Automatic annotation (TrEMBL):
Gene name of the encoded protein: Atp10b_1
GO molecular function, one term: ATPase-coupled intramembrane lipid transporter activity
Any one of the GO CC terms: plasma membrane
Ranges in coiled-coil conformation: none
Name of this chain's protein: AT10B ATPase
Protein source organism: Rhodinocichla rosea
Length: 115
């Protein structure tokens, strides 16, 4: 048998499961940073906290003005887009692995022993 054993140390004996559920909150484990709806904005916010990404973003903005344009706009955007894209893919894979691990932990069978 593989499963977790939970030993409550509160001294209470519960006769009714519904009564116990009303008193205690759920003990679901969640270690993921993102949801499907918050992935893009939160990830972009985290990416632009890095100084290098802000530097490349500043260069992209400067190249949109014809007086300051040094390279073509697309060429200047390429390093920033590539770094952001690879970082997003890496973060998405890591967060999905965390989600899968949380799911396996949350659905393991438990046995509760009362004192």
């Amino acid at each position: 048998n593989t499963g977790r054993i939970v030993l409550p140390d509160n001294g209470r004996q519960w006769k009714d499961w519904k009564q116990a559920c009303a008193v205690y909150s759920r003990n679901r484990i969640q270690t993921t940073k993102y949801t499907l709806f918050t992935f893009l904005p939160q990830n972009l916010l985290r990416q632009f906290h890095r100084l290098g990404n802000l530097y490349f973003f500043f260069l992209v903005l400067l190249n949109w003005f014809p007086q300051v344009e040094v390279f073509h706009r697309e060429i200047t955007m390429l390093p920033l887009v590539m770094v952001l894209l690879f970082s997003m893919i890496k973060d998405a894979v890591e967060d999905y692995r965390k989600y899968q691990y949380d799911k396996t932990i949350n659905f393991t069978k438990t046995r509760v022993y009362d004192k």
